[in-house]
């Protein structure tokens, strides 16, 4: 318990800093986190497919679980104590323009507040507490994007940014660059047009791009997007081997989403069956990154 409280206090102090500030994440605390060592501009090489590379885990909404709410700095830190992970988080814009981490359009499900995110200011949001997946209030606050980017740099984390409607990619890119973490960020896109727009706004940043077919591969190759900046999102079901092989032939990693519906997702089916080794079947089928709501379970299987 003392260790948990100490970690929370250290991270609370980090979250209070502006992006780029030297924070109090001491070497002792940092040593407990599985950060990723990268040379300058080294993320494309790290996320490049090779036949002998190790599989990766992407923690959906930062890796929430009882006691750890989604999209919280403390949850990101806890996830990194379990194992090295990509940290997927959601960005929304408040009425006053502040960018925060929040998945929903409204505050009720994940905080002690209420109302639409785009109709309240940071003066209101900063007084709220985040709620965990069971709806229990935690001591943790809603973080701003700048606070999370500062944590990312100090913890040597890698973020996947899900930029919600109404948030300007140009503004997000400006914050990322100001925090000096452009080489620790993957921008999530949902369409070919959005991938093109994001690449135009942030040509140095990596993109998660939907790849469902060979036609999608050819479309991306013809788009002018630097192929070294691509991670292939292959959806929420296991694909045929031929698609994974074609993705790998381009040097791209294939990300499979096991997350989603509490009753129908691959995560839910595996949990119900009680056989976490089934995650290894997805890797054997050709997936390289498991994007999951059960990051601790996947990490445990990978360690074994």
From TrEMBL:
Entries under PROSITE patterns matching the protein: GP_PDE
GO MF, any single term: glycerophosphodiester phosphodiesterase activity
Keywords: Signal
Keyword Signal: yes
Gene3D superfamilies: Phosphatidylinositol (PI) phosphodiesterase (3.20.20.190)
InterPro entries according to UniProt: GP_PDE_dom, PLC-like_Pdiesterase_TIM-brl
Gene Ontology biological process terms from the UniProt entry: ethanolamine metabolic process; N-acylethanolamine metabolic process; phospholipid metabolic process
Annotated ranges, domain GP-PDE: 55-302
Signal peptide: 1-21
Entry's Gene Ontology cellular component terms: plasma membrane
Entry protein name: Glycerophosphodiester phosphodiesterase family protein
Source organism of the structure: Gimibacter soli
């Amino acid at each position: 318990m003392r260790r948990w409280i100490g970690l929370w206090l250290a991270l609370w102090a980090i979250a209070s800093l502006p992006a780029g500030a030297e924070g109090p994440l001491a070497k002792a605390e940092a040593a407990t986190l599985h950060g990723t060592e990268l040379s300058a501009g080294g993320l494309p090489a790290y996320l490049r497919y090779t036949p002998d590379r190790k599989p990766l885990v992407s923690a959906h909404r930062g890796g929430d679980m009882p006691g750890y709410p989604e999209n919280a700095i403390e949850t990101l830190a806890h996830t990194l104590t379990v194992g090295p992970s990509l940290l997927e988080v959601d960005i929304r814009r408040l009425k006053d323009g502040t960018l925060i981490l929040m998945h929903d359009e409204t505050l009720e499900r994940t905080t002690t507040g209420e109302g639409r995110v785009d109709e309240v200011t940071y003066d209101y949001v900063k007084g709220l507490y985040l709620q965990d997946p069971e709806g229990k209030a935690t001591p943790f606050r809603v973080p701003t994007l700048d606070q999370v980017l500062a944590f990312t740099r100090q913890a040597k984390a890698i973020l996947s940014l899900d930029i919600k409607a109404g948030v300007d990619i140009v503004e997000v890119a400006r914050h990322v660059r100001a925090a000096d973490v452009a080489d620790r960020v993957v921008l999530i896109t949902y369409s070919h047009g959005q991938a093109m727009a994001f690449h135009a706004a942030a040509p140095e940043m990596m993109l998660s791009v939907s790849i469902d077919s060979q036609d999608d591969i050819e479309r991306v190759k013809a788009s002018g997007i630097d192929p070294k900046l691509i991670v292939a999102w292959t959806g929420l079901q296991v694909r045929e081997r031929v698609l994974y092989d074609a993705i790998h032939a381009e040097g791209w990693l294939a990300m499979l989403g096991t997350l989603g519906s509490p009753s129908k997702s691959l995560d839910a089916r595996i949990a119900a069956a009680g056989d976490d080794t089934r995650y290894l079947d997805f890797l054997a089928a050709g997936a390289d990154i498991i994007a999951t709501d059960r990051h601790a379970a996947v990490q445990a299987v990978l360690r074994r």
